[in-house]
Specification:
alpha/beta, Immunoglobulin-like, Rossmann fold, 2 domains, 6-stranded mixed sheet, 5-stranded mixed sheet, 9 helices
């Protein structure tokens, strides 16, 4: 895994100061799309802040995404955290080591709401909420020994939430098998079925296509793990030809030993690979996915020189925040920059008339805005701290993996069929 460059630390810090950054994606396109929705018109009130909202991406006017969740038997094991928030952390039960009983979810984790599968579902919910339905169409596929489409690309947010609710309620025993090749096939079919452009969607004819995979298991179907990994790699040519990029999250796997194929399919398609050592962390990590390829979003009041505040960018390039304004005319400038320096700039003129709050209701609304600004800034600062710790850990692990990879390449024996969930 490549270490995250220092640039991203500095970029995360700039979010708190007013410029929101995303990881730089290696994209061939240079065109940057920028759609600024707010601010607009005149503003008046007790707060000298203008809301800013918009959407930006590089090279295409929208995204088609298939979220692929592993629901094999091992995902019923504990994730390592209190995912359902009931104050108890689910632990692995002793009966989970008995292959004759291990398919029963009640015998794998003391709290099924804290399982790996529960963490995947929670991460999926947050991912769905973060995406802009006006620009991003989303579908859902689940897989174990075979793959099933639960929601087609372009399904409503209500349909996606209902399918995630259904998945959370399902108490099936699961299968031990992990058919990654089948999951890639099914996800590709979902994207192909949605290939017709949506006339009302901006830039629909040039939509980007993505597969985002969450899995905790070594591929072991069809055949044994080695053949299963080869079958998954065999799908890469088709994905590249169709312009599909793959982001893969390996949950709890030992990357050099079990998760290498996930890294390979991501990097070969121009996507990103993430090793999530503690599966519960995927709830937060899925938000790191970069779909837009935008290197930087800068918000500034060109009239005063003040930068925007609490500017946050979603995976698909939707952004929002506020910018300080002064009495009179303010030129609000938003700049979106591509990975190789191309820019798209939009300005809006906002006239601000400051005044006292018009009654208790407006005062409460102003106080709520200030509280939102405080909590958003704290969350972004916390994200910077977590990213710094991740980067340090990745640097150490990267060096260790590099030293161990050559020794392990020829020494690892071929694995046999796996007939029970991995602990």
């Amino acid at each position: 895994m490549r270490p995250v460059p220092l640039q991203r630390w500095l970029a995360a810090l700039s979010v708190c100061l007013g410029a929101a950054w995303l990881p730089v994606a290696a994209a061939a396109e240079e065109q940057v799309w920028l759609d600024l929705l707010r601010p607009e018109g005149a503003l008046s009130g007790p707060l000298a802040l203008a809301p800013v909202e918009g959407w930006a991406t590089t090279g295409a006017g929208g995204h088609d995404v298939v979220l692929v969740l592993d629901v094999s038997g091992s995902t019923l094991l504990p994730s390592g955290d209190d995912v359902d928030g009931d104050g108890k952390v689910g632990r692995k039960l002793r009966s989970a080591d008995d292959p004759l009983r291990s398919f029963n979810p009640r015998r794998l984790c003391s709290d099924p709401g804290d399982s790996v599968r529960a963490a995947e579902i929670a991460a999926a919910r947050r991912f769905v909420d973060a995406l802009d339905p006006d620009h991003t169409r989303l579908g859902l596929v689940v897989f174990a020994d075979s793959a099933e489409e639960r929601a087609p690309v372009g399904a409503s947010r209500e349909r996606l939430e209902a399918e995630l609710d259904r998945l959370a309620r399902e108490a099936d025993f699961g299968w031990a098998a992990t058919n990654l090749a089948g999951a890639l096939d099914r996800a590709g079919e979902s994207l192909a079925a949605a290939a017709e452009p949506v006339p009302s969607a901006p830039g629909a004819a040039g939509r980007r296509r993505w597969i985002v995979i969450l899995s905790d298991g070594t591929p072991n179907l069809p055949g044994n793990p080695r053949r299963a990994a080869d079958e998954a790699r065999a799908r890469l040519g088709g994905a590249v030809d169709q312009g599909i990029r793959i982001h893969a999250f390996a949950l709890g796997l030992q990357v050099m030993e079990d998760g290498q194929v996930f890294r390979e399919i991501s990097e070969a398609t121009g996507g990103r690979f993430a090793w999530v050592k503690r599966p519960a962390d995927v709830v937060a990590r899925l938000a790191d996915v970069d779909l837009s390829g935008v290197a930087e979003i800068e918000v500034r009041n060109a009239s005063t020189g003040e930068a925007g505040r609490a500017v946050r960018v979603s995976p698909d390039g939707r952004f929002d925040g506020v910018v300080p304004i002064s009495p009179g005319e303010n030129r609000i400038r938003v700049t979106a920059r591509g990975p190789r320096g191309s820019e798209s700039v939009t300005e809006r003129v906002v006239h601000f008339d400051p005044r006292e709050a018009d009654g208790p209701e407006e005062r409460r609304a102003a106080d709520a805005t200030l509280e939102w600004l405080r909590s958003r800034t704290e969350a972004l600062e916390l994200g910077l701290h977590v990213e710094r710790e991740r980067t340090q850990a990745r640097d150490v692990r990267f060096e260790a993996e590099g030293a161990a990879s050559e020794m392990a390449a020829d020494a690892a024996p071929e694995r046999g069929d796996v007939s029970a969930p991995r602990p």
